[in-house]
Amino acid sequence: MEGNKIKNILVTGGAGFIGSHLCKTLLELRHNVICLDNLFTGSLDNISELLTNSNFEFVNHDIIEPFFRDKIDEIYNLACPASPIHYQHNPIKTIKTCTAGVINILGLAKKNNSKVLQASTSEVYGDPFHHPQKEIYNGNVNPIGYRSCYDEGKRCSETLFMDYFREHKLKIKIVRIFNTYGPNMAVNDGRVVSNFINQALKEKDITINGDGKQTRSFQYIDDLIRGMILMMNSDDLFTGPVNIGNPSEITIKELALKVLKLTKSSSTLIFQNLPKDDPKRRMPDISLATKNLNWTPIIDLNSGLIKTIEYFEKLNEIHQT
To answer: Which pLDDT value is given to residue 277?
Structure first.
């Protein structure tokens, strides 16, 4: 823990997939944690074991509305639906979260002189012409497409963070998160890992968008949380953005076959239309994170998938009882 100092830390979107893991880790480091979430995609189930911790507070709140609290040392801003099925459900609200919501959080950080981290995304690179993606690449994003509420929303969030840094000398951090998986993923979030695992466990067809030759790189949640905390604790002059992801590239079809093997499922692969503006290749260059944070992912895909499969198996057992 940085200087062994106990901090008061606000985590927006703290009941979500990533946020719940972050809250748990910060509590293990003996910090005081305020979890802010409107429960649109987050779930109290994700933080149920934390609710009895005297150092943990849950607040049901949407960051589109101002939030006031003093004596906050750090803010992790994770509030925003992150899967297409969710952020396209109400695209205007998604944009508001990334703009008005981010302005509210930056204002709160300014008032408290807090250090504040923005959970940005690899989606800011769009369907990239450069591979692997480096932070200096400005991306290829469709500003009027169905994904733009999230892609352009997150790009605007980064703009706001940098402007508050330049104009108000705010202590900011920006991380660009690449595909992440692990326990606490929502069953119905539409992400490829949770989709494949749940379809395989239920012996349903594995649905692959396109021909399955498009690539992604998948990092286990523990690696991401470690990277985010390292970024928050890094030198104030290092604002990012910095890629946090696993540089091991795999095709979607290869991922499906791997899930089939690990679950011992007899499901078959079926192919459907590729969504518009779906990236063909996605893989981070993590040299900046390695150099400035001494961070690299350490959990391989097989090990992470086994843990995630075990989580969904238990979840299915609970729902069947």
So the answer is: 67
pLDDT band at 81 (very low <50, low <70, confident <90, very high): confident
pLDDT score at 1: 40
* pLDDT value at 10 more than 60: yes
User: Which residue type does 193 have?
Assistant: V
Q: What is the 3-state secondary structure (H, E, C) of 262-281?
A: HHCCCCCEEEECCCCCCCCC
Residue 136 falls inside a structural domain:
yes
Residue 84 belongs to a domain: yes
CATH number at residue 159: 3.40.50.720
Q: How far apart are CA 130 and CA 149, in angstroms?
A: 23
Nearest Cα to 291, choosing from 243, 232, 258, 246?
243
Determine, yes or no, domain membership for 145: yes
Nearest partner of 63 among 126, 119, 127, judged by Cα: 119
Per-residue tokens: 68 = 């006031």
Specify if 235 maps to a domain. yes
Number of structural domains the chain divides into: 1
Nearest partner of 67 among 22, 114, 21, judged by Cα: 114
- pLDDT above 90 coverage of the chain, percent: 83
Give the range of the structural domain holding residue 154, as residue numbers without chain letter: 2-184+219-247+283-298
Helix H or strand E encompassing 76:
strand 74-77
Are the CB atoms for 267 and 280 separated by under 8 Å? no
Summary mean pLDDT of the chain? 93
In this predicted structure, what is the pLDDT of residue 51?
Answer: 96
Q: Is 139:128 a contact under the CB 8 Å cutoff?
A: yes
pLDDT in tens, 294-303: 999 999 999 9
pTM for this one?
0.94
Dihedral over Cα of 152, 154, 156, 162: its sign: negative
Whole-angstrom distance, CA of residue 200 vs CA of residue 268: 9
10 Å CB burial of residue 110 (0-12, 13-18, 19+) is middle
Provide the annotated active-site residues: 150
